[in-house]
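Q&A log
Question type: sequence-to-structure
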Amino acid sequence: MADLYAELGVARGASEADIKKAYRKLAKELHPDKNKDNPKATERFSQVTRAYDILTDKDRRAQYDRGEIDEEGNPKMPFGFGGRAGGGYGGGGQGGFRGPNGESFDFGNDSEGISDLFEGIFGGMRSRSGGGGGGPFSGFRRSRPPQKGADVAYRLEVSFEDAATLAGQRVTLSSGKTLDIKLPPGVEDGTKIRLTGQGEAGPGGNGDALVAIGIRPHRFYRREGDNIRLDLPVALDEAVLGGKVRVPTVDGPVMLSVPRGSSSGKVLRLKGKGFTGKSGQRGDQLVTLQVDVPDDAELAAFLEGWSGKGRTNPRADLGV
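Response status: OK
Response body:
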């Protein structure tokens, strides 16, 4: 896989905003829904999503910049193990090994010879340090378990209403396979869901699929923790006389009682109509009334005659 910055087409010192902008552009072009007959585009979508996932995580980006993890987010082998030429305890050709003082050993394909050499070097260090477990290489093992396949990153955009009500979602993997998933309580923009065994294949089994959730903003709802806020226009007679009005919620419209004599800014509460929190309980919907005053000649004439009949000063508490 190419350098993560090159995958997104940004410079190494790019800001998080530039990275997000570049990802959004590529995601629109490469999304599997738009490229159902183009497996290369689907694979590229998976790669840029993985790059985005790592580079927007401050800790993982720092690890990547320091060379501690590779482009798939896996830790790099320490001390030069892994068949790379160079210093340290590195290797030359196939089956080769370079010792701590630069001496070269070549066993061809004789893996048992390599194991014996390691046992001789590190086993001797253990024995000189007082037997089992005392030396710096006391945890060294002669063989490593087979490595699992790489994890694959995805991003799933969901509606505001679906996130609030934890509606079931369907995700399409790079293989073309579709899976139905459940959004977890307390879901937020950026929440990650791990699908075990749905990543790339490997000798030790499949990796996982990591699905990052993106919540689309709503045109009139606003999230505030587990609560939802809504500014609700009401007619002048509804505010003055009170009554029941129809109000939208993420679960569908409900009737709300507006108290007689309500003013703009008054907040009414609809219990249990917010987001589902991590505890499993839902927040509320907070409705702020906005009185809509019409430009009406009869109303204006009435108020001109009424204004002098003992009207109180609504700004008295402000000292004006």
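Response note: Residues 111-128 form the longest helix (18 residues).
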